[in-house]
Design brief:
This protein has seven helices and two strands, in the order αααααββαα. The protein is mostly helical. It has a two-stranded antiparallel sheet with strand order 1-2. The longest helix has 27 residues.
């Protein structure tokens, strides 16, 4: 018997729409804050990883591409990839890059630095992205945040796609920074109940 589809089984479309919108107008990158806020809210108030398991459009996209479309080798990932030291190390690195992005946004907002209309892939490679923003539309710091945040989101998507192809479709989920944070929140909630 075929499983009946629920509305949230189509949230993989959200990932595609988000990146498409950001490609044409970088200010849509602010919508990605939903992917940061909602998982934490579900973990804080629900005490579970419902968002990660059912509502994450990125995880669904990897399942679709890697599983149903067969773009994954389906091999088990190396154990170190799901180990606590790697997951928390990657989370620390990711949060440091997020902090750096916020600092760059602050510098632009304070007038100490100028807006950089570029995406940084893998936190290293600058890719010009000036077609996606019209100068003066919003304050420069708003645009700087957009470029920085889109860079983080695109880099993490590319990492997820790479490990999806090399290993199982949702390998990214084993070390996803948001998944790691929500798991930590759930564990803290459990400790508080004991």
């Amino acid at each position: 018997m075929k499983k009946q589809k629920r509305w949230y089984d189509y949230l993989w479309l959200w990932s595609i729409v988000f990146f498409a919108l950001g490609f044409f107008n970088i200010l849509f990158a602010w919508l990605g804050m939903l992917d940061f806020g909602l998982p934490l809210l579900f973990a804080i108030f629900g005490g579970n990883k419902f968002f990660c398991n059912h509502l994450c459009g990125r995880g669904q996209l990897f399942t679709l591409l890697g599983g149903r479309l067969g773009l994954s080798r389906g091999k088990p990932a190396p154990r170190w990839m799901s180990s606590k030291p790697f997951r928390y190390g990657f989370l620390t690195f990711f949060m440091a890059m997020f902090g750096n992005m916020l600092f760059q946004t602050y510098l632009v907002g304070a007038g100490a630095s100028s807006l950089r209309e570029a995406i940084k892939l893998f936190w290293t490679f600058r890719v010009p992205w000036d077609w996606a923003y019209t100068a003066g539309t919003v304050p420069a710091w708003v645009a700087q945040f957009s470029f920085g945040f889109y860079s983080l989101m695109l880099t993490s998507l590319l990492i997820g796609l790479i490990v999806m192809v090399l290993y199982r479709p949702r390998t990214w989920c084993s070390f996803c920074p948001m998944g790691c944070m929500t798991q930590g929140v759930c564990q803290l909630r459990q400790l508080g109940k004991e």
